[in-house]
Amino acid sequence: MERYARLYASFSVKLAAALISLRDMNAASKLLLKLNERNPLDESVVRHLMTIREQTGDKKGLTALYTDYVRLLSRELGIRPSEEMIHLYELLVSRFSDKK
User: Fold this and answer.
1) pLDDT level of residue 100 (50, 70, 90 thresholds)
2) Helix intervals (H) in 1-100
3) What is the pLDDT of residues 52-71, one digit of tens each?
4) What are the distances in angstroms from CA 84 to CA 17, 41, 42, 47, 81?
5) Domain of 30?
6) Which of 21, 13, 59, 60 is nearest to 39 (CA)?
């Protein structure tokens, strides 16, 4: 059963990435939010959700998502986000100031 859950999650993340590239943010977001409910610690899901928030102009949503994820990691695992995740967040937030 665990194997099928991992396969489903892997397939869903790939499908969401394809939907994002096709600019179907609504469908990708719905899929990713379902995955996030099942495993809120999955960094790849949070990364894609952050990307969607940036591409749809939702800076508050992006910041809230990242902040909640950082708190969850700290509370549940006692760790900080990966360097890649920190850099992605900084990059996405910087794009908002570039758009002005």
Assistant:
1) low
2) 2-21, 25-38, 43-55, 59-77, 83-99
3) 999 999 999 999 999 999 99
4) 18, 15, 14, 10, 8
5) 2-99
6) 13
Beta-carbon contacts of 34 under 8 Å, excluding residues fewer than 6 positions away, are 12
- Please give the backbone phi and psi of residue 41, each rounded to the nearest 5 degrees, phi first: -90, -5
Q: What domain count does the chain have?
A: 1
Domain CATH number, residue 8:
1.25.40.10
Chain Cα centroid distance, residue 40:
10
End-to-end CA distance of the chain: 49
Average pLDDT over every residue of 6-30: 95
CA gap 28, 95 in Å, rounded:
21
Look at residue 99 in the predicted model and tell me its pLDDT: 63
Q: Is the pLDDT of residue 1 over 90?
A: no
